[in-house]
């Protein structure tokens, strides 16, 4: 059985790059994106390369969308070995509503989805959570370092609070890897 990975924000950029890299490692990839049309275009290309690829539309601003995605995963997969949180928005405006949209997607959506996926992650026994983003995906009005620190610290806090028995280690890129064993 192949390891299973979920990659959010996979219709372009870092998320798409992770999809391609994971498929080369014989990982079963479930790609997500809020834009179904763009996601479907990526699906067509990657499914020609590998049968281990599926797409599911996921909008981190929508509770209903996240719930549909969770039901899909529970119905089709026993566990989740890798979660790559790459989905993000970069509003082109600089007002209070842009900040709200950025925080809702790039932070709260990531946190809520990760919390909901913990039972599947725990079943894997040796799972990984990667919070990644480009400069465009950082939290509006925050520096890149602060933005990454906020997301990663909150992810670690959730792991400790919910006693999932997971631990964390820093990568050379400053991103947090969450795993069952840090050896």
UniProtKB/TrEMBL annotation:
UniProt KW rRNA-binding keyword: no
UniProt keyword Glycoprotein, yes or no: no
Keyword annotations: NADP, Oxidoreductase
GO MF, any single term: oxidoreductase activity
Gene3D superfamilies: NAD(P)-binding Rossmann-like Domain
One Pfam family it belongs to: adh_short
Family that this chain belongs to: Belongs to the short-chain dehydrogenases/reductases (SDR) family.
Protein name: Short-chain dehydrogenase/reductase SDR
Organism the protein comes from: Galdieria sulphuraria
